[in-house]
User: Fold this.
Amino acid sequence: METLFVVLIGAVAAVLANRNIAVFNDGLRPVVSEHIEGSLKRRELALTAFAMSFGLVIGFGIPFTLSASIILIHSILLGTDIIGLLVPKNKWGTPVAAVVGGVYGWGLIAGLEGFVKLFDYLPVNFLEPLGEVGTPVVVTFMAFPALAVALQFSIKKGILTFVVAAIVRQLAVWVNTEGFLKIGENTVSLNQEGMALIVGMIFLFAYAMKEKPEGASIDLASLFSEKVSRIKKNVVFFMVIGGLIAGATNLLLMAGDPISLNLLAEGKQTDAGIAAAARAIGFIPLVASTAIATGVYSPVGFTLIFVVGLFVPNVWFAVIIGALVIFLEVMLLNYIARFLDKYPGVRNSGENIRSAMTKLLEVALLIGGANAANTIAPGFGFFFIAGFYLLNEIAGRPIVRMAVGPVGAIAVGIIANILVLLGIMDIPQ
Assistant:
């Protein structure tokens, strides 16, 4: 059943991309819209999709998937974007996209099991140390609202948000240590990062809603009504893939972002759900804006389906509720457009939230990658990651900054095995 879920997700997502209905890569949606309007040829669209997504699949999605043995959704959906848009959009192209997308999904889950078994035969089994890549991510994630506030409003407001969030986190630690919260005889523990995150998000949206529109407002709902109608017309497809992804998340097969993935790898499903919810709320302005403006949706919608998968106790309930949630998202697009028009600060926060998360993940993953690499090969690991990062910067960043830590840690693991086989290095204890 687990394999079937992943195969179906791969097949449906590839069809959605092939029919220009939905793509996962946020940056691709405006490009697909240009193709729909006739200003961009299919070949150019396919090449653009490959250029924008291939590096992220290899350098970002796959390393995270390997480090936690849970599929990061980027691994599958960035790949199906490429598959769907490379295959011609015609009567035979769509079935081919479905088959290739399904085989790609199967390859991911089958290959993952094979990779895990392969590590047991290596002189230096570096699978467990790879888990260190995501350790700083979980803790630092709570800082992204403060960074978004600083980017959009001012550094002073960003510092204030950061300080208050940090204080709330430490208060939560103190409350847990003293055991103040109890239900009957049972002590209740607060999630300290989750509490800090909630406070930061309150600050962010409070500042955003205070920002008033300048000049005449734009009626987004009316301006892009035809494109919103196009998305609504395909709502059944979104319900299908939304239900499948919610079900797969419930089975702990996949995660929607590196933060919740690492929390799941640690067995913290509730915390992963809280992190996924914060990310989803923060990304609604970005996903909604690009969808309304382009008429091209995301196969994961506002990413609330991951929250459903993590909190609903039964896989089939998760499938049903996931489908209903993405249905409501699509049906509410006009109302969301009017809300974003009324509060331009909230609309603008989407891009700042994305930038804040990217900057934070770049730093956290570099630290995590360095720690993982040094656990695999003490001393050499730090040397390699530092050199790898700096050389990548000088070369013009052929590997995105976010991927340097995970890719570097994997490279150190491979090098360590080669050195042990050559007798140049002892097996790390």
